[in-house]
Structures are given as structure tokens and as C-alpha cells.
């Protein structure tokens, strides 16, 4: 009996040592520093809770109870409420919109398309602690459509939108915004390249000086009925499409397809995060969207998430638009 107790104690010590090593590695990888030892201790406790939750979720993934796996990400030292508060700063999509109808007559729908493979998608970015998802979604869509028009892929400035597409455009910089309002700004003023106006992840003074690209207008898919009918042909024929989703359950997404079993909402009022649809496909009979996020390339599937198609999972078919370049 004593030997069993000793073995159990050794296992506990090994586990404690492992989680502490993982904590130190987490802080190193993500550049995490805290104001005091007390805060470090509190964050470590939250980290441990999240690691346990991730492990339990992945057991369900292995048994087929859930459709995607989780991993430790930059959000692992945050409580669920802190992550939700971060998303709440993104801006809500539930106000009236100006919309044009999309005519999908005669468009050939391929079984799968990936605009990354066509060269129409720039590298994944990391918005950091700034609620600028809307800006990255908008510039990503413009980048893709510009490439498909003239075969030139340019990284455009999300920071210009954060700094300048405010005021009458109703965006709030790092406190949130909407892709449509970003498109309106680029229609009026154009937008500079990322090289000439680099990302800082903070609200700053507008430093607009000319532009690299200007758009003619933008198209909204008006409502859920039209989106259901048009989102697939739009993505297939036009290029990447900006979208809003409920991302509240995705901080630790690793790989797999987020399906209807996920706890995310499919209601317009709960949309809290701007992303970019860059293609679609199917796996084991499940149709999915390929979605580019702005949480860095270490998150998800190299910065991307696959979300189930045809069922409005996480509200992905409720708020969609693309630019006319």
C-alpha cells in the first residue's frame, strides 16, 4: 500500500512539474508578462483550468462526441468572461444595412474552391489585444478581389482603417467596427499598403497620405434567405467574402470542423467577430467553409478555421459582403 501511495505522489509531482513547464513555455511563446507575482499566480491558476478543460474536450473529440480539437492558444491565461469581454468590443452587426442583390444565374458551382491556392490570400495576421477584426476582414476581402482583377497581391493597411475609418463611418477603432463601414471608407478615400502604414494594434492618429487601392462599391448579401442562396456562388465566382460570426466558443480551436454541435450562436444579435471566407469544401460528408481569422498563424489550422456549411453554424451566413474593385 505504501508503495502505491509513493507512486501516486510521484505522478502528482510529475504532473505539477509538467504544467509549470508548460506555463513557462506559454509565457515565452506568447510574450506574456504580468505586473506582479500575485497576478502571475492568478493567471497560472486560470491557465491550469483551461488546460484541464482542453484535455477533457479532446477526450470527447477522440471519442467522436465533438467535431473539432482544442489546443493551448494565446487566450489560455484568460477566463471565459475575459475572452467574451474582448469579443464584445468588436462591434455588433445588428443594425440596418445598405444592400445590393447578387444575381447567381448561370454561375458554375465547383465542389470545392480554395482561394489561397489561387494566390488571392495574404498571410494570416494577428490583431493582438485590439478589436480590429473588422478591419482585417475588410482588407482581406479587398486584397483578394484586387488580386483576381489584376493578379497583384498587396497587403493592405488594417491600421489605417483603425485610425481613420471612424467618426461618420461609425467604427470605433480597437473597440470594434463593421466591414461595411470599412468598405465605405475605402470607397471614399482608398487605402494604403501595410508597408506604408504598418499595423500597431492600438488606436492612433489618422496618418492618411494617398492610397494604393480604391474600391468602386461593395455588395451586401441582404438577408438570410439570399445568403443561403448566394453565399456559395459568390465565394465560387467572386472571391473571398467578409463575414461575421459568433466566435465566443473558439478561443482554443485547433483543428477539425466546427459544426452545429458547437455551442456558438446562429443569431444575428450574437455576431461578435469579423472573419474572411476564402473557400469551401467537404470532408467525410460534411460541407464546410474555409475561414481566415486574425488571431495569428499559431491559432487553429495555421490561422484558419473550418465551419460547417449549409446550416448557418455560428451565424456565418447572416452578415456577408464583398468589395467591387
From TrEMBL:
Residues 109-324 form the Peptidase C1A papain C-terminal domain. Keywords: Disulfide bond, Hydrolase, Protease, Signal, Thiol protease, Zymogen. Residues 1-18 form the signal peptide. InterPro entries: Papain-like_cys_pep_sf (IPR038765), Pept_asp_AS (IPR025661), Pept_cys_AS (IPR000169), Pept_his_AS (IPR025660), Peptidase_C1A (IPR013128), Peptidase_C1A_C (IPR000668), Peptidase_C1A_papain-like (IPR039417), Prot_inhib_I29 (IPR013201). SUPFAM superfamilies: Cysteine proteinases. GO terms for biological process: proteolysis. Residues 23-83 form the Cathepsin propeptide inhibitor domain. It comes from the Eukaryota. Pfam families: Inhibitor_I29 (PF08246), Peptidase_C1 (PF00112). GO terms for molecular function: cysteine-type peptidase activity. Belongs to the peptidase C1 family. This is Uncharacterized protein. It comes from Acanthoscelides obtectus. The lineage of its organism: Eukaryota, Metazoa, Ecdysozoa, Arthropoda, Hexapoda.
